[in-house]
Amino acid sequence: MFEVEMENAIDNCFLVVLTFDSKNKGKLTRKCVPFDIGPRRNALSVSKIYFHFYDLGSPNKQHNLSVEPVNILELRVTEEKFEPSNYVNWTPAWFYPRNWGNCS
Hints:
Elements: H1 3-12, E1 14-22, E2 26-38, E3 50-55, E4 63-67, E5 72-81
Antiparallel strand pairs: 1-2, 1-5, 2-3, 3-4
């Protein structure tokens, strides 16, 4: 569920508005950069898939956010574009392929 929306946002560099059920804080809504679809990098099992974001709307500070699709209540793709090089400052090894130039 929501995989089509996530792929569209990644492919077209659109920000998303994510509403999800947080285990500790209940229902949260955040504006995010969509980063990837796949397991967590430090996970022992790669069979569990997450949607990975960069949370722009956290009240504390911007940070990476990984959410299991089952916990996503809504994923709305906006028309607001982002520039990947403003957020990707490492050599990525994405699970989901994309054409982000040097950030691919």
